[in-house]
Amino acid sequence: MEIIKFDHFSNLFIAYYYGSYIHLNERWHGYNQNCVYSKFYYITSGECEIKVGDTVYQGQPRRLFFIPAGTRHSFYHINDNYLTKHWVHFKLDVGGESIDKSYRLPLFVDVKDDTALVECFQAINMPCTTLSEELRRNAKLLELFSIYLSLSENSGNVNQSGGSNDFNKVLHYIKTNLGKKPTITELADIMHMHPNYFIRMFKSKTGMAPGKYINNLRCEIAKSLLENTEIPINSIMLQVGFEESSAFSHFFHLNTGYSPYEFRKLFGNQK
Questions:
Q1: d(CA 37, CA 92)
Q2: What is the C-alpha separation between 31 and 187, in angstroms, rounded?
Q3: Among 4, 96, 156, 214, which residue has the least CB neighbours within 10 Å?
Q4: pLDDT digits (tens, 9 = 90+) for 81-92
Q5: Is the pTM above the cut of 0.90?
Q6: Which H or E run includes 88?
């Protein structure tokens, strides 16, 4: 039987605002900024300071800064060795929340080989005139974030944070226990909440009630397994929480317009 793997960023949303490659002058500075977007700065030359809270960080070549939305910060030159940098402003959240509420991420990472990083910045900041180009830009933005995340993980600086970590545990529990029909009480217990409050919280984070979320996931997993594997339909039925083939067929037809057999015959990759 195949094992289905899920990542922590299944609810991640990322979108480009603007950016460029620029050489700055003495007028570049900002104090107590609190932006609605997230920022990447990659410094290629020059010096500056970036202050978050009471901590001052040194901006220097081959240092990639990530400043999540809502982070109050200041930035300024410290001499006439002005910055040259790649930069991009963008939206990034997980499950409708800013990334820093889900994960504790470092403010900066140091980069040894910046070939892939620079290529991402260049591709992201190219003009876009078509929908396909916009999609490729967001894909490159996601790649840029993955490079930053990889460098952060290698330095041991990535951790999930409290309440969001518990909610991610709820999503992981749902995904790995579909065959056991997870109940609202079980899910609420993970968050240490009353079931009624849990339902409201879950809907605020995902846009849907737990039951609908679970059924959508059942359908998507069943479709994926029918399309991409040769696992018997009865085994797929059990994996997504159905014990009777008639109930599974009715559920699948209601959500896709096809029976499981018809769907596999039309869309499957079986030889």
A1: 8
A2: 43
A3: 156
A4: 999 999 999 988
A5: no
A6: strand 84-94
